[in-house]
Each structure stands twice: as C-alpha cells, then as structure tokens.
Amino acid sequence: MSKSIPTLMILVMILALVPLGCAPKLGSNDYSASSAGVSQRVQTGIVTSVRSVRINDDDSSTVGASTAVGAVAGGVLGNLVGHGGGRVAATVGGALLGAAAGNLGSKAAVAQNGYEITVKLDGGGTVAITQGADIAFSAGQHVKILSGGGRDRVVPN
After folding, report:
1. Using CA atoms, how far apart are residues 120 and 45, in angstroms rounded to an integer?
2. Cα–Cα distance measured from residue 131 to residue 82, given in angstroms and rounded to the nearest whole number
3. Residue 67 · residue 101 · CB < 8 Å
4. Whole-model pTM?
5. How many domains does the chain have?
6. N or C: less crowded end of the chain, CB within 10 Å?
7. What is the DSSP string of 29-45?
8. Residue 92: which domain range?
9. What is the reported pLDDT for 126?
C-alpha cells in the first residue's frame, strides 16, 4: 500500500464528519428573512423558572445524508486495502465505520444548547418557551414574549 492511501483515508473520514446541514439558529436574537417586517403580539411577564435543555434538529434528512456520505467514503477507502476476501471485509468494515462517523458528526453539529423559560404572564396564565441559549434569563426577571412569524421568543423587557 502506498503512503498516500492512509493519508487519503484519514482525509475522507474527516470529511465524512462534516455535516451536510447546520443547526438552525433558535435564540431570541435570531430572525429569518421571512420574519422581518412581520408584526408580533407582545405580552409581558416575569420568569418563574429557567431550565437548561439540549435542542436537536428535527430534520432527519441531514443526519441521514451525512450517514450515507460516511458509509460511501468508508466503503471506498476500505476497498483500497486488502486482497480477495480481506478486501470485501475491509470494504464492509469501512462502510460501517464511515456511516457511524457521519451519523455522529452530523448529530453533534446540529444540536445546540438552549433554555426552557417559564413565564407568568402579567395578563394571566403561564407559558413555557424553549429557545437557543443566546441570552441568559433568571427567575424574577421581567421579560416580553414576542409571538408571530411562526414562533414565539422570550426577550428581556
């Protein structure tokens, strides 16, 4: 085996770990272009609790595509080593390892830290909103709840 094949194997496996998609920004300061210019209903209240959460991407196609790319890359690389039955085993093993690497890499890249913020509304009632952790909140803090454009968000008052 030439010296360039192990280097090529390492490079392709690293590329398989690069996700095909990115986590959507879900913080209180993150807006999509379609949300700009959309009116929002505003309510005020006081934070009663904040809980740290992990937000995972709902789009399984991102993870599936990264898994498939990893499997193909691993299979191709595995096919470059061995002879006869050993080559078949290396191809299958490479595909399995590549799929696992692509899957894990994609899941890690699209997940993000967030908060579940429970707010007692001044007008009555209580709401809990989960969003990205771009702004820290604490119990007793006065906040606004912005509703509209397809999502709700908590922002400091």
Report:
1. 5
2. 50
3. no
4. 0.55
5. 1
6. N
7. T---GGGTT---EEEEE
8. 4-156
9. 97
